[in-house]
Design goal:
The protein is mainly alpha-helical. Helix content is 68%, strand content 0%. It is built from 11 helices and no strands.
């Protein structure tokens, strides 16, 4: 799975949080310098989401020059405040060697911390690590435990992976009914890979 830096952002209700949405919208519209100024204002008041977005802008070179070291500073600041999207990005950066070298222990550490806080993306990442044996001995059954948890939390990707696992017997016994159940669950919410798989199965 490729690193995804723009992780889903929750919708907030207060006026201050609504202004944060304005800053995010500014990024999406290409008004990067305006957005960065707003994020820094929120970051100065201890907002971990703002820290995360500043890091994202440094990672992607939006309104600033790309700077992985500066991005790491802001990601760690965000993660120290238990903001799980920052932990997931840190895990991905270490897993894929974006910090200069691959560090699987640090990657798993960040993913595990995010899992403990209920992050679905981290659950899927840990599942992939054990299913594919990334830096560890392959253990599909352990991997599927993470995937099941993420699927039950509502992750569409996890539902698809779990459905395919039941169809192919990866980490679980083959169970076409369970496979179809999880694929349909993801397909109902518009997850294209599950829709395509169900179409293939019906032919």
């Amino acid at each position: 799975m490729p690193v995804i830096f723009f992780i889903m952002i929750a919708i907030f209700a207060t006026s201050a949080q609504a202004s944060m949405e304005d800053a995010i919208r500014a990024v999406q519209e290409g008004r990067n310098e305006d957005a960065l100024a707003e994020f820094h204002q929120y970051a100065s008041h201890g907002n971990p989401m703002a820290d995360y977005w500043i890091a994202t802008m440094y990672l992607q070179g939006r309104g600033v020059e790309k700077n992985i070291d500066e991005a790491l500073v802001w990601l760690h600041k965000s993660a120290r405040q238990d903001y799980t999207p920052a932990m997931v990005v840190l895990g991905n950066l270490h897993l894929e060697g974006k910090t200069g070298k691959v560090n699987l222990n640090l990657a798993r550490g960040w993913f595990n911390k995010a899992v403990e806080l209920g992050d679905q993306f981290a659950m899927v990442r840990m599942g992939e690590i054990y299913i594919n044996g990334i830096g560890v001995k392959p253990n599909p059954r352990v991997g599927i435990m993470y995937i099941k948890r993420a699927a039950k939390e509502g992750s569409l990707q996890a539902k698809h992976v779990l459905g395919m696992a039941f169809l192919k017997g990866v980490g679980v016994d083959i169970d076409p009914q369970q496979g179809e159940f999880w694929l349909k669950s993801a397909a109902k919410e518009g997850f294209e890979p599950s829709i395509a798989t169900l179409l293939e199965l019906s032919e």
